[in-house]
Protein backbone atom coordinates (compact mmCIF):
# COMPACT_ATOMS: atom_id res chain seq x y z
CA UNK A 1 0.00 0.00 0.00
CA UNK A 2 2.81 2.34 0.85
CA UNK A 3 4.40 1.54 -2.48
CA UNK A 4 1.25 2.51 -4.37
CA UNK A 5 0.91 5.67 -2.35
CA UNK A 6 4.51 6.56 -3.10
CA UNK A 7 4.03 5.99 -6.86
CA UNK A 8 0.85 8.07 -6.85
CA UNK A 9 2.63 10.96 -5.13
CA UNK A 10 5.51 10.77 -7.62
CA UNK A 11 3.09 10.90 -10.57
CA UNK A 12 1.30 13.85 -8.96
CA UNK A 13 4.58 15.70 -8.46
CA UNK A 14 5.57 15.06 -12.08
CA UNK A 15 2.25 16.46 -13.36
CA UNK A 16 2.51 19.55 -11.17
CA UNK A 17 6.11 20.12 -12.35
CA UNK A 18 5.22 20.06 -16.12
CA UNK A 19 3.30 23.37 -16.15
CA UNK A 20 6.27 25.05 -14.46
CA UNK A 21 8.60 23.64 -17.12
CA UNK A 22 6.16 24.78 -19.79
CA UNK A 23 6.60 28.51 -19.23
CA UNK A 24 10.37 28.14 -18.93
CA UNK A 25 10.38 26.19 -22.17
CA UNK A 26 8.03 28.74 -23.75
CA UNK A 27 10.21 31.58 -22.56
CA UNK A 28 13.23 29.92 -24.09
CA UNK A 29 11.27 29.37 -27.30
CA UNK A 30 10.03 32.95 -27.31
CA UNK A 31 13.55 34.10 -26.59
CA UNK A 32 14.80 32.01 -29.44
CA UNK A 33 12.05 33.34 -31.66
CA UNK A 34 12.92 36.82 -30.47
CA UNK A 35 16.52 36.31 -31.46
CA UNK A 36 15.38 34.95 -34.81
CA UNK A 37 13.16 37.98 -35.28
CA UNK A 38 16.07 40.16 -34.26
CA UNK A 39 18.20 38.53 -36.91
CA UNK A 40 15.28 38.92 -39.28
CA UNK A 41 15.07 42.64 -38.55
CA UNK A 42 18.78 42.98 -39.01
CA UNK A 43 18.43 41.10 -42.25
CA UNK A 44 15.66 43.45 -43.34
CA UNK A 45 17.85 46.43 -42.55
CA UNK A 46 20.57 44.91 -44.62
CA UNK A 47 18.09 44.34 -47.43
CA UNK A 48 16.90 47.94 -47.13
CA UNK A 49 20.48 49.03 -47.43
CA UNK A 50 20.99 46.63 -50.29
CA UNK A 51 18.06 48.20 -52.14
CA UNK A 52 20.64 50.82 -53.06
CA UNK A 53 22.73 49.33 -55.80
CA UNK A 54 26.43 49.30 -54.96
CA UNK A 55 28.89 48.77 -57.80
CA UNK A 56 32.39 49.54 -59.00
CA UNK A 57 33.30 51.32 -62.20
CA UNK A 58 36.77 52.45 -63.29
CA UNK A 59 38.09 51.63 -59.83
CA UNK A 60 35.57 53.87 -58.00
CA UNK A 61 32.62 52.83 -55.86
CA UNK A 62 29.08 53.97 -56.66
CA UNK A 63 25.99 53.80 -54.45
CA UNK A 64 22.82 54.20 -56.51
CA UNK A 65 19.87 55.11 -54.28
CA UNK A 66 17.71 56.79 -56.91
CA UNK A 67 13.91 56.46 -56.84
CA UNK A 68 13.80 54.97 -53.33
CA UNK A 69 11.36 57.44 -51.64
CA UNK A 70 14.12 58.31 -49.19
CA UNK A 71 13.76 61.30 -46.87
CA UNK A 72 17.21 61.14 -45.27
CA UNK A 73 20.66 59.60 -45.54
CA UNK A 74 21.09 56.21 -43.86
CA UNK A 75 23.89 55.89 -41.34
CA UNK A 76 24.69 52.30 -42.28
CA UNK A 77 25.59 53.10 -45.89
CA UNK A 78 29.20 52.34 -46.88
CA UNK A 79 31.56 55.12 -45.87
CA UNK A 80 34.07 54.58 -48.69
CA UNK A 81 31.84 55.42 -51.64
CA UNK A 82 33.01 57.90 -54.28
CA UNK A 83 29.69 58.67 -55.99
CA UNK A 84 26.31 58.89 -54.23
CA UNK A 85 23.20 59.00 -56.46
CA UNK A 86 20.10 60.25 -54.60
CA UNK A 87 18.05 61.66 -57.48
CA UNK A 88 14.24 61.44 -57.45
CA UNK A 89 13.69 60.91 -53.74
CA UNK A 90 11.73 62.87 -51.10
CA UNK A 91 14.50 64.72 -49.26
CA UNK A 92 13.32 68.17 -48.12
CA UNK A 93 16.08 69.64 -45.96
CA UNK A 94 19.86 69.17 -46.08
CA UNK A 95 20.97 69.31 -42.44
CA UNK A 96 24.39 70.20 -41.06
CA UNK A 97 26.94 67.35 -41.40
CA UNK A 98 24.40 65.25 -43.29
CA UNK A 99 27.11 63.80 -45.53
CA UNK A 100 30.19 64.24 -43.35
CA UNK A 101 30.72 60.48 -43.00
CA UNK A 102 31.38 60.15 -46.75
CA UNK A 103 34.80 61.75 -46.75
CA UNK A 104 35.85 60.19 -50.08
CA UNK A 105 32.79 61.41 -51.98
CA UNK A 106 33.53 62.94 -55.39
CA UNK A 107 30.01 63.44 -56.73
CA UNK A 108 26.64 63.91 -55.06
CA UNK A 109 23.45 63.80 -57.13
CA UNK A 110 20.43 65.33 -55.36
CA UNK A 111 18.41 66.48 -58.34
CA UNK A 112 14.62 66.08 -58.44
CA UNK A 113 13.99 65.92 -54.71
CA UNK A 114 11.85 68.31 -52.64
CA UNK A 115 14.79 70.25 -51.20
CA UNK A 116 13.73 73.71 -50.01
CA UNK A 117 16.51 74.41 -47.50
CA UNK A 118 20.25 73.79 -47.27
CA UNK A 119 21.86 74.48 -43.91
CA UNK A 120 25.27 76.14 -44.04
CA UNK A 121 27.13 73.04 -42.83
CA UNK A 122 25.26 70.50 -44.93
CA UNK A 123 28.34 69.62 -47.01
CA UNK A 124 30.93 69.69 -44.22
CA UNK A 125 33.61 67.04 -44.62
CA UNK A 126 33.24 66.75 -48.41
CA UNK A 127 36.65 68.17 -49.25
CA UNK A 128 37.01 65.77 -52.22
CA UNK A 129 33.66 66.61 -53.83
CA UNK A 130 33.94 67.87 -57.41
CA UNK A 131 30.32 67.59 -58.61
CA UNK A 132 27.11 68.67 -56.85
CA UNK A 133 23.74 68.38 -58.61
CA UNK A 134 20.85 70.27 -56.99
CA UNK A 135 18.70 71.13 -60.01
CA UNK A 136 14.93 70.52 -60.13
CA UNK A 137 14.28 71.28 -56.46
CA UNK A 138 12.51 74.00 -54.46
CA UNK A 139 15.43 76.16 -53.36
CA UNK A 140 14.69 79.87 -52.99
CA UNK A 141 17.76 81.05 -51.15
CA UNK A 142 21.16 79.88 -49.87
CA UNK A 143 24.39 81.46 -48.74
CA UNK A 144 27.98 81.16 -49.84
CA UNK A 145 28.63 79.21 -46.63
CA UNK A 146 27.32 76.00 -48.17
CA UNK A 147 30.18 76.06 -50.72
CA UNK A 148 33.04 76.78 -48.33
CA UNK A 149 33.78 73.11 -47.40
CA UNK A 150 33.84 72.19 -51.11
CA UNK A 151 37.35 73.30 -51.99
CA UNK A 152 37.50 71.10 -55.11
CA UNK A 153 34.01 71.77 -56.46
CA UNK A 154 34.08 71.99 -60.25
CA UNK A 155 30.48 71.44 -61.34
CA UNK A 156 27.42 72.86 -59.57
CA UNK A 157 23.94 72.57 -61.07
CA UNK A 158 21.18 74.63 -59.37
CA UNK A 159 18.85 75.54 -62.24
CA UNK A 160 15.09 74.95 -62.16
CA UNK A 161 14.86 76.18 -58.57
CA UNK A 162 12.57 79.15 -57.73
CA UNK A 163 15.41 81.47 -56.67
CA UNK A 164 14.29 84.53 -54.75
CA UNK A 165 16.71 87.25 -55.85
CA UNK A 166 16.77 89.36 -52.74
CA UNK A 167 19.55 90.45 -50.39
CA UNK A 168 19.78 87.03 -48.69
CA UNK A 169 21.08 85.57 -51.99
CA UNK A 170 23.83 88.17 -52.34
CA UNK A 171 26.80 86.10 -51.10
CA UNK A 172 25.92 83.01 -53.16
CA UNK A 173 25.47 85.01 -56.38
CA UNK A 174 28.81 86.76 -55.85
CA UNK A 175 30.49 83.37 -55.37
CA UNK A 176 28.93 82.01 -58.56
CA UNK A 177 30.14 85.02 -60.52
CA UNK A 178 33.81 84.59 -59.62
CA UNK A 179 35.57 84.03 -63.00
CA UNK A 180 37.27 80.83 -61.87
CA UNK A 181 33.86 79.32 -61.05
CA UNK A 182 32.78 79.16 -64.67
CA UNK A 183 30.91 75.83 -64.24
CA UNK A 184 29.11 76.72 -61.03
CA UNK A 185 25.46 77.70 -61.21
CA UNK A 186 25.04 77.98 -64.97
CA UNK A 187 21.44 78.43 -66.24
CA UNK A 188 19.95 79.21 -62.81
CA UNK A 189 17.48 82.13 -62.96
CA UNK A 190 15.55 84.42 -60.65
CA UNK A 191 11.90 83.58 -60.09
CA UNK A 192 11.27 86.76 -58.10
CA UNK A 193 10.99 89.73 -57.68
CA UNK A 194 9.09 90.79 -60.75
CA UNK A 195 11.83 93.20 -61.84
CA UNK A 196 14.50 90.47 -61.93
CA UNK A 197 12.57 87.38 -62.89
CA UNK A 198 14.13 85.37 -65.70
CA UNK A 199 17.59 86.87 -65.22
CA UNK A 200 20.49 84.46 -64.85
CA UNK A 201 22.29 84.44 -61.51
CA UNK A 202 25.63 84.33 -63.34
CA UNK A 203 24.91 87.60 -65.17
CA UNK A 204 22.85 89.40 -62.55
CA UNK A 205 23.89 92.85 -61.34
CA UNK A 206 24.50 91.91 -57.71
CA UNK A 207 23.98 95.49 -56.50
CA UNK A 208 20.32 95.18 -57.45
CA UNK A 209 19.68 92.38 -54.96
CA UNK A 210 19.78 94.51 -51.84
CA UNK A 211 18.71 97.70 -53.65
CA UNK A 212 15.41 96.10 -54.54
CA UNK A 213 14.84 95.07 -50.94
CA UNK A 214 15.24 98.69 -49.81
CA UNK A 215 12.80 99.97 -52.42
CA UNK A 216 10.03 97.44 -51.92
CA UNK A 217 6.71 98.87 -50.73
CA UNK A 218 5.71 96.62 -47.87
CA UNK A 219 1.99 97.33 -48.20
CA UNK A 220 0.10 94.17 -49.09
CA UNK A 221 -0.70 93.82 -52.76
CA UNK A 222 1.53 96.74 -53.74
CA UNK A 223 4.78 96.55 -55.72
CA UNK A 224 7.53 99.12 -56.35
CA UNK A 225 6.21 102.47 -57.48
CA UNK A 226 2.80 101.85 -55.93
CA UNK A 227 1.67 99.55 -58.74
CA UNK A 228 -0.50 96.53 -57.92
CA UNK A 229 1.60 93.45 -57.39
CA UNK A 230 1.10 90.86 -60.16
CA UNK A 231 0.07 87.32 -59.31
CA UNK A 232 2.87 84.95 -58.16
CA UNK A 233 5.26 84.29 -61.00
CA UNK A 234 6.12 80.79 -62.04
CA UNK A 235 9.24 80.50 -64.16
CA UNK A 236 8.57 78.77 -67.42
CA UNK A 237 11.19 76.04 -67.55
CA UNK A 238 13.52 76.01 -70.50
CA UNK A 239 14.10 72.77 -72.32
CA UNK A 240 17.42 72.25 -70.53
CA UNK A 241 15.67 72.50 -67.17
CA UNK A 242 13.31 69.73 -68.28
CA UNK A 243 16.25 67.46 -69.04
CA UNK A 244 18.26 65.37 -66.61
CA UNK A 245 21.96 65.97 -66.19
CA UNK A 246 24.26 63.15 -65.09
CA UNK A 247 27.92 63.88 -64.52
CA UNK A 248 29.18 60.35 -63.84
CA UNK A 249 30.52 58.16 -65.29
CA UNK A 250 30.45 60.69 -68.17
CA UNK A 251 28.57 63.98 -68.47
CA UNK A 252 25.20 63.14 -70.03
CA UNK A 253 22.25 65.38 -70.88
CA UNK A 254 19.13 63.21 -71.09
CA UNK A 255 16.35 65.04 -72.96
CA UNK A 256 14.57 61.94 -74.25
CA UNK A 257 10.77 61.78 -74.17
CA UNK A 258 10.34 65.46 -73.26
CA UNK A 259 8.00 66.40 -76.13
CA UNK A 260 10.56 68.85 -77.50
CA UNK A 261 9.89 70.54 -80.83
CA UNK A 262 13.31 72.15 -81.14
CA UNK A 263 16.87 71.68 -79.97
CA UNK A 264 17.17 73.24 -76.48
CA UNK A 265 18.90 76.59 -76.26
CA UNK A 266 21.88 77.16 -73.96
CA UNK A 267 23.12 73.60 -74.22
CA UNK A 268 25.82 72.85 -71.63
CA UNK A 269 29.32 73.10 -73.04
CA UNK A 270 30.77 70.28 -70.94
CA UNK A 271 28.38 67.51 -72.01
CA UNK A 272 29.93 64.41 -73.62
CA UNK A 273 26.71 62.50 -74.36
CA UNK A 274 23.38 63.99 -75.39
CA UNK A 275 20.14 62.02 -75.76
CA UNK A 276 17.39 63.87 -77.66
CA UNK A 277 15.56 60.75 -78.78
CA UNK A 278 11.79 60.23 -78.86
CA UNK A 279 10.78 63.87 -79.24
CA UNK A 280 9.06 65.83 -82.02
CA UNK A 281 12.03 67.66 -83.54
CA UNK A 282 11.50 68.15 -87.28
CA UNK A 283 14.26 70.50 -88.38
CA UNK A 284 17.94 70.91 -87.45
CA UNK A 285 19.08 74.47 -88.05
CA UNK A 286 22.67 75.75 -88.43
CA UNK A 287 24.99 75.92 -85.41
CA UNK A 288 22.52 74.63 -82.81
CA UNK A 289 25.24 72.45 -81.26
CA UNK A 290 28.04 74.98 -81.64
CA UNK A 291 28.71 75.31 -77.90
CA UNK A 292 28.74 71.55 -77.27
CA UNK A 293 32.29 71.22 -78.50
CA UNK A 294 33.08 68.17 -76.33
CA UNK A 295 30.13 66.13 -77.54
CA UNK A 296 31.04 62.58 -78.56
CA UNK A 297 27.63 60.89 -78.76
CA UNK A 298 24.44 62.48 -80.12
CA UNK A 299 21.17 60.53 -80.22
CA UNK A 300 18.44 62.08 -82.37
CA UNK A 301 16.57 58.86 -83.08
CA UNK A 302 12.77 58.56 -83.12
CA UNK A 303 12.03 62.19 -83.83
CA UNK A 304 10.26 63.57 -86.90
CA UNK A 305 13.39 64.87 -88.62
CA UNK A 306 12.83 65.58 -92.28
CA UNK A 307 15.37 68.33 -92.92
CA UNK A 308 18.94 68.99 -91.74
CA UNK A 309 20.50 72.30 -92.74
CA UNK A 310 24.10 72.57 -93.84
CA UNK A 311 26.19 73.49 -90.76
CA UNK A 312 23.63 71.91 -88.42
CA UNK A 313 26.52 69.91 -86.91
CA UNK A 314 29.00 72.77 -86.96
CA UNK A 315 31.36 72.65 -83.99
CA UNK A 316 31.00 68.91 -83.35
CA UNK A 317 34.58 68.18 -84.31
CA UNK A 318 34.92 65.31 -81.83
CA UNK A 319 31.57 63.62 -82.37
CA UNK A 320 32.07 59.87 -82.71
CA UNK A 321 28.52 58.47 -82.75
CA UNK A 322 25.44 59.96 -84.42
CA UNK A 323 22.06 58.22 -84.29
CA UNK A 324 19.50 59.47 -86.83
CA UNK A 325 17.43 56.30 -87.03
CA UNK A 326 13.62 56.25 -87.04
CA UNK A 327 13.12 59.65 -88.62
CA UNK A 328 11.70 61.02 -91.90
CA UNK A 329 14.92 61.82 -93.77
CA UNK A 330 14.97 61.52 -97.58
CA UNK A 331 18.56 62.62 -98.19
CA UNK A 332 21.34 64.87 -96.82
CA UNK A 333 21.99 68.30 -98.23
CA UNK A 334 25.44 68.83 -99.63
CA UNK A 335 27.90 69.67 -96.84
CA UNK A 336 25.83 68.49 -93.86
CA UNK A 337 28.48 66.01 -92.69
CA UNK A 338 31.59 68.06 -93.43
CA UNK A 339 32.30 69.02 -89.79
CA UNK A 340 32.25 65.46 -88.49
CA UNK A 341 35.94 64.71 -88.85
CA UNK A 342 36.11 61.99 -86.19
CA UNK A 343 32.76 60.29 -86.71
CA UNK A 344 32.97 56.51 -86.33
CA UNK A 345 29.35 55.33 -86.20
CA UNK A 346 26.33 56.59 -88.12
CA UNK A 347 22.90 54.99 -87.56
CA UNK A 348 20.43 55.63 -90.40
CA UNK A 349 17.83 52.85 -90.09
CA UNK A 350 14.13 53.36 -90.73
CA UNK A 351 14.31 56.53 -92.80
CA UNK A 352 12.46 56.82 -96.14
CA UNK A 353 15.58 57.31 -98.27
CA UNK A 354 14.78 58.43 -101.82
CA UNK A 355 17.21 57.05 -104.38
CA UNK A 356 17.70 59.90 -106.82
CA UNK A 357 20.33 62.56 -107.51
CA UNK A 358 20.17 63.99 -103.98
CA UNK A 359 21.26 60.77 -102.27
CA UNK A 360 24.63 60.80 -104.02
CA UNK A 361 26.25 63.22 -101.56
CA UNK A 362 25.78 60.82 -98.65
CA UNK A 363 27.36 57.93 -100.56
CA UNK A 364 30.15 60.19 -101.77
CA UNK A 365 30.91 61.28 -98.19
CA UNK A 366 30.84 57.73 -96.85
CA UNK A 367 33.11 56.57 -99.66
CA UNK A 368 35.72 59.10 -98.61
CA UNK A 369 35.36 58.28 -94.90
CA UNK A 370 35.92 54.50 -94.84
CA UNK A 371 36.40 54.51 -91.06
CA UNK A 372 32.72 55.31 -90.51
CA UNK A 373 30.54 52.28 -89.73
CA UNK A 374 27.02 52.96 -90.96
CA UNK A 375 23.75 51.04 -91.10
CA UNK A 376 20.27 51.44 -92.56
CA UNK A 377 20.77 52.86 -96.05
CA UNK A 378 17.88 51.22 -97.92
CA UNK A 379 15.90 52.81 -100.75
CA UNK A 380 12.22 53.39 -100.10
CA UNK A 381 11.52 55.28 -103.35
CA UNK A 382 11.15 55.14 -106.30
CA UNK A 383 9.28 51.87 -106.61
CA UNK A 384 11.77 50.23 -108.97
CA UNK A 385 14.55 50.60 -106.39
CA UNK A 386 12.52 49.98 -103.23
CA UNK A 387 14.41 47.66 -100.90
CA UNK A 388 17.74 48.19 -102.67
CA UNK A 389 20.87 49.16 -100.81
CA UNK A 390 21.54 52.80 -101.64
CA UNK A 391 25.13 51.93 -102.56
CA UNK A 392 23.87 49.45 -105.17
CA UNK A 393 21.53 52.05 -106.61
CA UNK A 394 24.39 54.56 -107.00
CA UNK A 395 26.54 51.93 -108.72
CA UNK A 396 23.71 51.15 -111.14
CA UNK A 397 23.13 54.83 -111.76
CA UNK A 398 26.78 55.40 -112.59
CA UNK A 399 26.95 52.27 -114.68
CA UNK A 400 24.22 53.63 -116.93
CA UNK A 401 25.89 57.00 -117.28
CA UNK A 402 28.30 57.65 -120.19
CA UNK A 403 31.93 58.01 -119.25
CA UNK A 404 32.06 61.63 -120.24
CA UNK A 405 29.62 62.37 -117.38
CA UNK A 406 32.05 60.95 -114.91
CA UNK A 407 34.91 62.98 -116.34
CA UNK A 408 32.98 66.23 -116.40
CA UNK A 409 32.18 66.22 -120.15
CA UNK A 410 29.00 67.33 -121.91
CA UNK A 411 25.84 65.29 -121.27
CA UNK A 412 25.04 63.86 -124.71
CA UNK A 413 22.62 61.19 -123.50
CA UNK A 414 24.60 58.52 -125.40
CA UNK A 415 26.73 55.68 -124.13
CA UNK A 416 30.44 56.39 -123.70
CA UNK A 417 33.31 54.52 -125.25
CA UNK A 418 36.60 53.28 -123.92
CA UNK A 419 35.61 52.51 -120.32
CA UNK A 420 35.78 49.05 -118.75
CA UNK A 421 32.93 47.36 -116.91
CA UNK A 422 34.75 47.87 -113.62
CA UNK A 423 35.19 51.55 -114.31
CA UNK A 424 31.49 51.90 -115.00
CA UNK A 425 30.64 50.28 -111.68
CA UNK A 426 32.81 52.55 -109.55
CA UNK A 427 30.96 54.84 -107.11
CA UNK A 428 31.15 58.52 -108.01
CA UNK A 429 34.26 60.07 -106.52
CA UNK A 430 36.54 57.06 -107.10
CA UNK A 431 39.97 58.08 -108.32
CA UNK A 432 42.22 56.39 -110.81
CA UNK A 433 45.41 57.17 -112.66
CA UNK A 434 43.59 58.34 -115.77
CA UNK A 435 40.45 59.85 -114.19
CA UNK A 436 40.44 62.75 -111.78
CA UNK A 437 38.05 62.85 -108.82
CA UNK A 438 34.59 64.25 -109.58
CA UNK A 439 31.25 64.67 -107.77
CA UNK A 440 28.01 63.52 -109.45
CA UNK A 441 26.74 66.00 -112.01
CA UNK A 442 23.74 67.16 -109.94
CA UNK A 443 26.12 68.28 -107.19
CA UNK A 444 29.07 69.62 -109.13
CA UNK A 445 29.49 70.16 -112.80
CA UNK A 446 32.62 71.23 -114.62
CA UNK A 447 31.81 73.49 -117.50
CA UNK A 448 33.89 72.95 -120.65
CA UNK A 449 36.29 75.64 -121.69
CA UNK A 450 34.76 77.44 -124.65
CA UNK A 451 37.57 79.91 -125.23
CA UNK A 452 41.27 79.47 -125.64
CA UNK A 453 43.62 82.35 -124.99
CA UNK A 454 46.68 82.46 -127.25
CA UNK A 455 49.48 84.83 -126.36
CA UNK A 456 51.09 86.37 -129.46
CA UNK A 457 54.78 87.09 -129.15
TrEMBL record:
SMART domains: LRR_TYP, LRRCT. Residues 410-419 have a biased composition (Gly residues). The keyword Iron does not apply. Residues 1-19 form the signal peptide. Residues 161-211, 351-402 form the LRRCT domain. Residues 404-448 are annotated as: Disordered. Gene3D superfamilies: Ribonuclease Inhibitor. InterPro entries: Cys-rich_flank_reg_C (IPR000483), Leu-rich_rpt (IPR001611), Leu-rich_rpt_typical-subtyp (IPR003591), LRR_dom_sf (IPR032675), LRR_TM_domain-containing (IPR050541). Keywords: Leucine-rich repeat, Repeat, Signal. The keyword Signal applies. GO terms for cellular component: plasma membrane. Residues 431-448 have a biased composition (Basic and acidic residues). This is LRRCT domain-containing protein. It comes from Dicentrarchus labrax.
